[in-house]
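Review form for a predicted model. The reviewer records the input and the model, then writes brief findings.
Reviewer: anonymous (R2)
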Amino acid sequence: EVQLVESGGGVVQVGGSLRLSCVASGFAFDDYAIGWFRQVPGKGREGISCISSSDDTTYYEQSVKGRFTITRDNAENTVYLQMNNLKPEDTAVYYCGAGSDIYSAYLICQADQLRYTELWGQGTPVTVSS
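Model under review:
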């Protein structure tokens, strides 16, 4: 079965850290760029960090730059998002998504309507309490 499964979300206080994981199965993981996206009720899903298939290119949305780090382990079919210095505005459901590696990490994250993302996980909620 082709799927992405996220984990690691939860409730954390302001300034705390979480590490999200996205485990892929059923497809050639190292042929795909992977991204982390988030969505709050009433707003569209936004790309916040993406990584190329070969791990040599990353993209970060401005609001998370310097606080979040995306990495991938192709041997384990897993992508991680280390989130530090969390803020209340980081509260959202976080999704991982996969797109063909013919597209850059930037395009996976920032394309209009996220149209280059082919596969989505079910999401993991993150709540940052003040």
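Findings: The radius of gyration is 13 Å.
Further findings: The helical segments are 105-110.
Recommendation: see findings above.
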